[in-house]
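Private note to self, pasted from the team thread so I don't lose it. Backbone tokens:
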């Protein structure tokens, strides 16, 4: 927290939040509103979800996390933030938590694994409202360490396009995150 003229502000560190890095690198499409309903895949201990929670203070953030260790921290944080709902589950299996969900305005995915794009697509198809947007934070080295990151990003974008998604914006996250790209997309229903 930083106090400026009697007002408290939270520091949003671009090296701990890929969304902050994308903003600093020129992100134009920023769909988060005060009443947004969000599905956050790969919530970890809740750093970025907590900042989104500040923005969507009248909305809800469903926070899916696979790691029990990270979930303990996320649950503690969620006790302080009534608009964050922690879900201990695997984002590659969205049918596991479908009964807990409603349609959402935004799906934010930050899951570093080989099937990042596929799990994003599956969750988008199940949970995104017709006019909603998705934000996919891709880590190329988690998908394929033998290829150049630029090749991986092109292949993953092709997967999005082949599955009916339209990429609105791509933001390289260097120098804050190595070999990462932010994709903002909509689904052509």
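Design output:
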């Amino acid at each position: 927290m930083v106090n400026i003229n009697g007002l408290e502000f939270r520091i949003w560190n671009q090296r701990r939040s890929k969304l902050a890095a994308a903003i600093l690198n020129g992100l134009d499409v920023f769909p988060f509103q005060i009443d947004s309903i969000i599905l956050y895949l790969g919530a970890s201990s809740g750093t970025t979800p907590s900042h989104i929670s500040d923005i969507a203070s009248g909305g809800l953030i469903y926070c899916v996390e696979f790691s029990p260790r990270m979930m303990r921290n996320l649950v503690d944080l969620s006790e302080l933030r009534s608009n964050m709902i922690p879900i201990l589950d695997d984002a590659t299996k969205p049918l596991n938590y479908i009964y807990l969900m409603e349609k959402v305005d935004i799906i934010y995915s930050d899951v570093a694994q080989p099937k990042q794009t596929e799990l994003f697509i599956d969750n988008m198809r199940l949970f995104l409202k017709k006019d909603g947007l998705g934000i996919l934070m891709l880590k190329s080295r988690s998908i394929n360490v033998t290829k150049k990151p630029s090749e991986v990003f092109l292949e993953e974008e092709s997967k999005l396009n082949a599955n009916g998604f339209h990429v609105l914006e791509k933001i390289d996250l260097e120098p804050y995150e190595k070999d990462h790209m932010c994709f903002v997309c909509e689904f052509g229903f």
